[in-house]
Specification:
The chain is of the alpha/beta class. The protein has helices at about 10-15, 15-30, 40-50, 75-85, 105-120, 135-145, 160-170, 185-195, 225-235, 240-255, and strands at about 5-10, 30-40, 60, 90-100, 125-130, 150-155, 175, 200-205. The radius of gyration is 17 Å and the shape is globular.
């Protein structure tokens, strides 16, 4: 079996380059054969990319997250555009809206979100979406500006009705579930899983956050923990884990335009 972690903040797991390489190696031993590395900032992207450039199993997204909108860096749009030409950079993001922590003002968040959607469209790449307490605005903006290559609603947190609304509008979105899917009280996520097509489901670790229930004694999530989320999902869907792993792998390769 092989698994694809579609969202891991390797730079937040460890700042030390040797430890980052060890994270990738341990993930491989656990069956996690591909990882999308998500930057915490554009400076973080450059450092992590340089460290992991020789790791063929690690792909990268680059973008300005809502937490960075106050100080995205000078020439941040140019930095993203230039980074998208690097080998194994396959998506824009994460970007999106976070009205829970209120990073900057809403208008600034929306402005930077829209600019990154436009960048993704120009480069024919998918975009990875952060959404926290901003579902209405995220939906309305995607309805008008979603890139043709699609979008990933990462660490999905809305309910089944929201997912159905996305599908009804024929939005090319994928729903990515993290370790919080394994929590007993995550009924909105459980209901969503049962109401979206399997072809639109992805899994991620959101490392170092969202620790799967089986690892709750740990301090942080690692990409190597991804199979625990896959196992929980397989039980929910009453599927053989190996069969599900194939489907999830195919979905991940499709949205990121990678060979299977």
């Amino acid at each position: 079996m092989q698994f694809f972690d579609t969202h891991a903040h390797i730079g937040l797991i460890h700042s030390d380059p040797i430890e980052q390489l060890r994270v990738v190696q341990r993930a491989k031993f656990a069956g996690v054969k591909r990882i999308i590395s998500i930057n915490n900032s554009l400076v973080d992207f450059k450092k992590v990319y340089a460290t992991l450039r020789a790791c063929p199993e690690v792909y990268h997204a680059v973008g300005v997250a809502p937490s960075e909108v106050v100080t995205p860096g000078s020439n941040w749009e140019k930095t993203i555009e230039e980074s998208l030409s690097l080998p194994r950079v396959v998506a824009v993001g994460e970007t999106g809206l976070d009205y829970y922590k209120q990073f900057g003002d809403k208008r600034r968040q929306v402005e930077i979100f829209i600019k990154q959607l436009d960048i993704a469209r120009r480069h024919n790449l998918p975009v990875i979406i952060h959404n926290r307490d901003a579902g209405t605005d995220v939906f309305d903006i995607l309805k008008e500006r979603i890139p043709e290559s699609g979008a990933i609603l990462h660490c999905y947190s809305e309910n089944a009705a929201y997912a159905k609304k996305c599908m009804k509008e024929n939005l090319n979105v994928y729903f990515s579930f993290a370790g919080n899917l394994t929590y007993r009280n995550a009924r909105n996520l459980h209901e969503t899983v049962m109401n979206v097509p399997l072809e639109r489901i992805l899994i991620e670790t959101e490392s170092p956050f969202m620790i799967p229930a089986v690892y709750r004694a740990k301090k942080r999530t690692m990409p190597e923990y991804l199979p625990a989320t896959a196992k929980f999902l397989a039980e929910m869907l009453d599927m053989d884990l190996e069969e599900l792993s194939v489907k999830l792998w195919q979905n991940s390769c499709r949205i990121f335009k990678l060979p299977e």
